[in-house]
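REQUEST ID: PR-0412
SUBMITTED BY: lab tech R.K.
PRIORITY: routine
TASK: structure prediction, single protein chain
INPUT:
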Amino acid sequence: MAKWVEIRKGADFQEIGVRFGITPFTARLIRNKDIVGEEQIEQYLHGDCRDLHPATLMKGVTEAVALLREKIEKKASIRIIGDYDIDGVCATYIFLKGLKRAGANVDTDIPDRIKDGYGLNQELIQRAYEAGVDTIVTCDNGIAAPKEVDYAKSLGMTVIVTDHHELQEVVPKADVVVNPRQPDCPYPYKKLCGAAVALKLVQALWESLGYPQELTYQELLMFAAFATVGDVMDLTGENRILVREGLKLLRETAHPGMSALIEVNELNRERLSAYHIGFVLGPCINASGRLHTAKRALELLDTQEKELALTRAKELKAMNDERKALTEKGVEAAVAQMESSPLKEDRVLVIYLPDCHESLAGIIAGRIRERYYRPVFVLTDAEEAVKGSGRSIEAYSMFEEMSKCKELFIKYGGHPMAAGLSISKERVEEFRRRLNEDCRLTKEDLTEVIHIDMALPFSCVSETLVEELELLEPFGKGNTKPVFAVRNVRILESRVLGKHQNVLRMKLMDESRTILEGIYFNSCMQDVLLDLQRKPTMHMLYYPEINEYRGQRNLQLRILNYC
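STATUS: complete
OUTPUT:
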């Protein structure tokens, strides 16, 4: 059971409201996010591209621009090597478009998730060498590949590494490394995704060639924003600006690939939000890298012909539909294993699903983390080893804890909240044991804490309130939707919906005797229905929203939790 804690932070909400043209209600919600002071509040509400930091502040950008211009002038062959997820695909596309406009002789390569694995490897380098490539530019990878960079250098190639992942003990000896997480990098904002790092480098390159700064934003910012949401980066500071401005561009874009993806998913352009990137459009891009090759997603982004773009977008959507079905099977198998074994007592879950499609391990780990609120690794058999992905909780730095037993891995890397690894089958149990022996998580750490912004009876909920909440968007990691609480709610009607019977639609009435529609998503619906039978009233956490269906708009409550 999650622990509910109301946020109580004081300020003169009336004064803040007058100063910034917002209501005291909105002022309180902003203060709850620890956004204080005129400058912070102004940027939160009205920040735009003028507030982004200069690209040249990032360590390595100036040197990388000079090196790229030298290679372009010499007509040297440049190859961009990206990653197979949404961030890697978008970063690759940004570099492809950016270098082409700069006059480069450039092509791309993206590793196959199954055959090549994550990041730069010897096979990719060998392919580039045999193709006569002079310079490799990595994006969203490379910082964890010192041996591979050495190999490329031994073949006489130039290597520029651009990445955003945490640095490991050995930094690659590339010609240039561009990564804001370098300890001596003066760039003020460290939480950019790989595509945003690519955007910064292209921006600096174009400016050195005399192109206006606005051109980079008009043509490429949308893809950095798309990747920022898809890669689940914090929507704070610079990322928040990128995503807010990128969403404006996405709603109006004539880009054939993005337009086709929006069309085949039947989305209303005017209402596009970060949610649609994270849960509808982005997964279509990721699905190609999971079930086939991410090169197909890159092809969609690089498609100029409308009909061909529609065909390719439909293919990606079909792959994502298949991915969702396979994910449900994997989650069911993981839960069955948990509930029928001593694994349930572990504080760090290591679930071995040998028959699971390896590309789905991270998604399944995320779903299991949501259910049990513990750090989760899901491992599966691959061709030469066991591979896996992890998803963590706030109190557990996954990358840091893995580094304590790094000798177990063939390869590993990641963030505090997510990680990837490959390991021999014989060491899987040792991996599980070591993580749990070294684990310092307490019972409190393993209790999810849900912060409530305020108690709000149903009588205060209106379309006007929902529109006011839109001032706080885009929502996502680091800038979550406000959470409202209501006491003693009666469920007047309920019915289960959805292909997987995981949606509960309800008619709710609170103490003010106001009746509103509610919707609740839960994969364990039988447990929820039992709770409904046992409890005549419930306390609920919710977020108000507008449900648009077939041209009709209705106020509804997204139920987040109950007790």
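NOTES: Residues 306-339 form the longest helix (34 residues).
REVIEWED BY: pending
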